[in-house]
Write a structure and sequence with these properties.
Distance between the termini of chain B: 29 Å
Largest sheet of chain B: 4 strands, antiparallel
Largest interface: A-B, 15 and 17 residues
Helix content of chain B: 25-40%
Order of helices and strands of chain A: HHHHHHHHHHHHHHHHHHHH
Number of strands of chain B: 6
Radius of gyration of chain A: 25 Å
Oligomer: heterodimer
Strand content of chain B: 25-35%
Strand content of chain A: under 5%
Largest sheet of chain A: none
Shape of chain B: flat
Shape of chain A: elongated
Number of strands of chain A: 0
Number of helices of chain B: 4
Strand order of the largest sheet of chain B: 2-5-1-6
Radius of gyration of chain B: 19 Å
Structural class of chain B: alpha+beta
Number of helices of chain A: 20
Chain lengths: 401, 128
């Protein structure tokens, strides 16, 4: 509704404020008069009227005359109460490209998209980025003000700008998906609605750009992950590794779709990081168990990914894959530079992986210490419980005396 | 339509750079002409180099006049374009065309809209 209203009134903040007014009005009148037969249409109509009211109070004459005229025209039209689905989809695309405009700093783009398209509260967005809520609130307000003051256009970019602009959008969508896939705080391991929202956005993009390999790659990656959502958490809320999961709870339809999309992406012969990640996930999913997983191929894919978009996470995963492919000491060798990196001192997955490799190498004492560090750094209760379980599973050191 | 001030910043050129930039003057001329023809141009000027600047401050009734720019920076203001564009994207497209964008920075600032006296009258009208 917000996206469509933005299209009608031509101003982000005005649309938001008008929509808020309409919801307030609904809260006041529906309990008294009953919920209307078509609540969506009621809200749309009332928000348009509220936008007109707000515009009348607006300052710049030239600006508002045009918009006012257009709005009044719309208001007197006989009823587009059933807005076409494709029009709504287009509006959401316009909105996401606007939120991801290069004139906005990346953190602002991500925050704005999560706030307006992902429907997250400012607090939820703040936690996703490990900043305080007031800080995030200011960031979002500043971004909206910039959109208004600088007149960032509300549209899907023209063809010659589309490829670059799309890259920014994909990054935002993936960040949203990741936040839904593994919430970093709190007792729940996953937040399903966020992941579904990211997938929905991914599908929209795939419709718009079916010939973009990375768009297909990202959607494939998200589907392959999300397909296993129902099996990730065990009966008592404990986290289950891929090969411990009950495969009957996997969404096979989503997996098949993910694999199809990946094949279609690869056929386009434009490799990219999302396709690589999707390929790695596909290899995991195809393997019946840990032993039969093609770790060598996975390690190679991580190597390619490291060359394309290096990051400590990629190096870490590569080390784990190498450990499976050729032994824990090879994996530990790759972990060494990461353990020396001061920026990663508080990176919990590094210590968890370190612990795991030390255990497999037979160093239980070292593993216990690494598990302790990981546990201390874990902000997720389910994850912490799993780490504690693994630490308990270590052989007890021989007691002295 | 929104207006944008394109501020052209670049480092103080050495002799070689000055020669290269002077050689670009015809390109600047063509650019300015094209903006005029497209109906985007409201104004444009090249400024004398920063050595010619004088900075004025009045503090506690005391007037301070300083030789030079307001601050010592790596890049200095060398000129400006005032354009009327449909939206930020159009303004950014023009900024990309500036020869200076390749060695300096073009800051694109939207001009703030000020309520006109006519608008105030209209407001009273609408309120009635």
């Amino acid at each position: 509704m917000l996206a469509t209203l933005i299209r009608h009134v031509g101003d982000f903040q005005l649309a938001e404020d008008a929509l808020q007014d309409a919801f307030t009005a609904a809260l006041a009148t529906w309990p008294r008069d009953g919920v209307p037969a078509n609540p969506g249409a009621w809200i749309t109509t009332v928000s348009r009227r509220r936008a007109i009211d707000r515009l009348r109070r607006a300052r710049s004459l030239a600006d508002r005359t045009e918009r006012l005229a257009a709005l009044v025209r719309l208001d007197s039209e006989e009823h587009p109460s059933m807005i076409e689905e494709s029009a709504v989809a287009d509006d959401r695309l316009r909105l996401i490209f606007t939120c991801c405009h290069p004139a906005l700093a990346m953190p602002a783009r991500v925050a704005l998209t999560l706030r307006t398209l992902g429907g997250l509260s400012t607090g939820e967005v703040a936690r996703a980025f490990l900043v305080s809520e007031p800080t995030m609130g200011k960031r979002i307000v500043r971004a909206k003000r910039k959109i208004a003051d600088a007149h960032i256009p509300y549209r899907v970019p023209p063809d010659h700008e589309l490829p670059d602009r799309l890259q920014g959008v994909l990054k935002v969508v993936y960040l949203i998906f990741n936040e839904g896939y593994a919430a970093s705080e709190g007792p729940r391991l996953a937040r399903a609605e966020l992941s579904s929202e990211a997938i929905r956005l991914g599908r929209l993009l795939a419709r718009l750009m079916p010939d973009d390999a990375e768009v297909l790659g990202l959607l494939a990656l998200m589907l392959l992950h999300d397909a296993r959502r129902g099996a990730r958490v065990g009966a008592s809320g404990e986290y289950l590794a891929l090969h411990e999961q009950d495969r009957s709870r996997w969404d096979l339809g989503a997996i098949r779709e993910g694999q199809q999309l990946l094949r279609a992406a690869i056929r386009l012969r434009r490799p990219g990081s999302y396709q690589l990640q999707a390929a790695i996930t596909a290899l995991h999913v195809q393997a019946p168990d840990v032993e039969e997983t093609d770790w060598r191929q996975i390690a190679e894919l991580y190597g390619a990914l490291a060359r394309l978009s290096p990051s400590p996470v990629v190096e870490l995963n590569r080390a784990v894959a190498v450990a499976y492919a050729s032994g824990p000491s090879d994996g530990l060798a790759l972990l060494a530079p990461l353990l020396d990196d001061a920026r990663l001192e508080r990176y919990q997955p590094l210590h968890a992986a370190h612990a795991e490799l030390l255990r497999r190498a037979g160093d239980d004492a070292g593993a216990a210490r690494a598990y302790e560090r990981a546990i201390a750094l874990s902000a997720n209760a389910v994850e912490r419980a799993e780490l504690e379980r693994r630490r308990e599973g270590l052989a007890r050191p021989p007691s002295t005396g | 339509m929104p207006k944008y001030l394109l501020l052209l910043y670049a480092n103080e050129p050495d002799a070689k750079e000055r020669e290269e930039r002077d050689a670009e003057l015809p390109a600047w001329g063509r650019l300015t002409d094209s903006l005029r023809e497209a109906g985007l141009l409201l104004g444009a000027d090249r400024l004398h180099p920063v050595d010619s600047a004088t900075t004025v401050r009045v503090r506690d009734g005391e007037t301070e006049i300083t030789d030079g720019p307001f601050a010592v920076t790596k890049e200095y203001l060398g000129g400006y374009y005032l354009l009327e564009c449909a939206d930020l994207d159009e303004a950014l497209e023009q900024a990309v065309r500036m020869p200076l964008a390749r060695y300096g920075s073009v800051e694109v600032r939207p001009v703030a809209e000020v309520a006109s006296p006519v608008a105030a009258e209209d407001e009273d009208e609408a309120a009635r």
